[in-house]
Amino acid sequence: xxxxxxxxxxxxxxxxxxxxxxxxxxxxxxxxxxxxxxxxxxxxxxxxxxxxxxxxxxxxxxxxxxxxxxxxxxxxxxxxxxxxxxxxxxxxxxxxxxxxxxxxxxxxxxxxxxxxxxxxxxxxxxxxxxxxxxxxxxxxxxxxxxxxxxxxxxxxxxxxxxxxxxxxxxxxxxxxxxxxxxxxxxxxxxxxxxxxxxxxxxxxxxxxxxxxxxxxxxxxxxxxxxxxxxxxxxxxxxxxxxxxxxxxxxxxxxxxxxxxxxxxxxxxxxxxxxxxxxxxxxxxxxxxxxxxxxxxxxxxxxxxxxxxxxxxxxxxxxxxxxxxxxxxxxxxxxxxxxxxxxxxxxxxxxxxxxxxxxxxxxxxxxxxxxxxxxxx
Amino acid sequence: xxxxxxxxxxxxxxxxxxxxxxxxxxxxxxxxxxxxxxxxxxxxxxxxxxxxxxxxxxxxxxxxxxxxxxxxxxxxxxxxxxxxxxxxxxxxxxxxxxxxxxxxxxxxxxxxxxxxxxxxxxxxxxxxxxxxxxxxxxxxxxxxxxxxxxxxxxxxxxxxxxxxxxxxxxxxxxxxxxxxxxxxxxxxxxxxxxxxxxxxxxxxxxxxxxxxxxxxxxxxxxxxxxxxxxxxxxxxxxxxxxxxxxxxxxxxxxxxxxxxxxxxxxxxxxxxxxxxxxxxxxxxxxxxxxxxxxxxxxxxxxxxxxxxxxxxxxxxxxxxxxxxxxxxxxxxxxxxxxxxxxxxxxxxxxxxxxxxxxxxxxxxxxxxxxxxxxxxxxxxxxxxxxxxxxxxxxxxxxxxxx
Lengths: 376, 402
What we know:
The complex is a heterodimer.
Chain A: E1 2-6, E2 21-25, H1 39-47, E3 52-56, H2 62-70, E4 79-82, H3 85-94, E5 98-102, H4 110-120, E6 124-128, H5 135-144, E7 148-155, E8 158-162, E9 179-184, E10 193-198, E11 201-205, E12 209-211, H6 216-221, E13 226-229, H7 236-247, H8 253-258, E14 263-264, H9 277-280, E15 291-299, E16 303-308, E17 313-314, E18 318-322, E19 328-332, E20 346-347, E21 352-356, E22 366-369
Parallel strand pairs in A: 1-2, 1-13, 2-3, 3-4, 4-5, 5-6, 6-7, 7-13, 12-14
Antiparallel strand pairs in A: 7-12, 8-11, 9-10, 10-11, 15-16, 15-22, 16-21, 17-20, 18-19, 18-22
Chain B: E1 10-14, H1 18-26, E2 31-35, H2 50-62, E3 66-71, H3 83-92, E4 97-100, H4 103-112, E5 117-119, H5 128-136, E6 139-143, H6 150-160, E7 163-170, H7 182-186, E8 204-208, E9 213-216, E10 223-225, H8 230-235, E11 240-243, H9 250-270, H10 278-286, E12 293-294, E13 318-328, E14 332-337, E15 346-350, E16 357-358, E17 365-366, E18 379-383, E19 394-398
Parallel strand pairs in B: 1-2, 1-11, 2-3, 3-4, 4-5, 5-6, 6-7, 7-11, 10-12
Antiparallel strand pairs in B: 7-10, 8-9, 13-14, 13-19, 14-18, 15-16, 15-19, 17-18
Helix pairs in contact in B: 1-2, 1-9, 3-4, 9-10
């Protein structure tokens, strides 16, 4: 497993080993979070034998897309790390570089990756995996996808990206090229969201950095080809520790204590971000095929008004009424009235009518046929 | 002499449940979009069962309208197990299209459908190459990212020969759609599988590097209102105009559809908006709970005036009051009451076409004809007969200016 780090003007190339590290070039206008970078440093890195990868994770509307791709120049670059589907297609059709797909949001299923493999063919060299994929999934994918893979193993976790400039209107110097701030909300369980505004819009990051390097053995055994460390916001001391770690990936306690933010593991162990959904809906009110009517009004001790959803309701029929809390009451329809409150023998589908009162069955209760042999 | 034919876009309305689907269609939607129990982005919505989808499609087709089913979650491997069966089901009931954002889902739709494929705004398609990438996957239509101007959308459509759909009205994500995972990492709810916690609407204390501080709802967007821009949508040949809001009320579905329908019909008849009753249409839209309006990026990239830096005050002096269930000269109007009211309350019936009609509320009866001195929500009520009232029409209540 090889490390990938960002090349910046502070990078001391002599401290890095080409067999252990590849370099990411994040520069304007293609990177949404560009680094200051001298052209001479890129040439030097290339001359030293480093593999260089251009980051194109900025999203671009048509006018910007056209203007930036018009002057495309990728000297020294071995691959482009691309996020936008259109940019990937453009690279396929107009360049010769290898393509790495940046799949950080979405692409959480093998079919999604397969669709890209079909379209990009041999040009697709690898994928940058979403950090929402747990280790178990990454292991499975590594076996079946037949692609190189990369995962963020230490660095800021992007939560939000808007093309709109949201910070400068709040700052007295609204002409600054880049603004940084910290945000907190009483409505959020977390505090201290790093905020950034630049030419690509506004970004919000998680208060803690994603860190998986303290489980390096697990990372390595997951089948990943590359692990990425983004230490661009860290002190020189922390960056030196990162270089040491890359050379000898063992204990990282010292690095953790030097790192500017706390660490978190995100979804590495398990992703249960869909388990709360069941609580957002009332299972007792879910409209299942066996529901034949719903209660739309009631007059205590006298009647329930119902709208028939399924087949017609008829006098003599035995029913179950299920309340929104899940309580089930059984009843027999000994009489019935139509919507004009006149006696009738049945109420047709989509019609409104009245049946005898059943206690504990408020509006929104649902009605289904009582199972045979049930007792009343 | 025959009337000239003017192009008018499809009006696409939200259908959070079967009632809203029928309401939107009755009020003039050419198409509606809705979700099954899974695979969409509104886990808390009153989504459709298979039976309701069948009924909804049959209802829509009988009224000449189309139904698009959203499958636009960013799905994980385990979510896909039952998707092929659901796709086959959608094909069997003749759903008109599915809306996807995940290329894996698109592949499965091709394999197990096929069904007409629309690309969700969630995919953030922003440029010609992006449209072409999805065209390669079989997309017939792309719902462009909300960052794309109408003018650019028109050009993308002409160059790609793919249908273009744009949002015309409703609440907006501030982020590039599909690129916000705040809920995922702060609330444990996957925003891209239906669990968005709307963290962008929160108030934030912001401290800049120079220690200056501000308190702001800086990530909250004003609501999109593209009524004024309709002429540009039409002239650029945008095929479909989408109203956001599957989670919103029946009154919202009825009112927004009704007003945009009226505007599009006006164009159809006149080929111009020169003498159009803009004030009346805008006033009607203002009667819905709403944030301040913006045209966002429809005409030019959204600026700082597109931020809704306020607490969420979505009140309106008008409320959803009831739906007409039956209209009978002998027994009057039978209505499904959603908000309590007393005799002589100002109620207005929203006809499917034309101006609102004030209803006679001098006498209110219960379903069993007992005289009431006030109604309660979720009850059946009878009002004096109104000959212009039809089943399915929505009634709103004026509660006075707050």
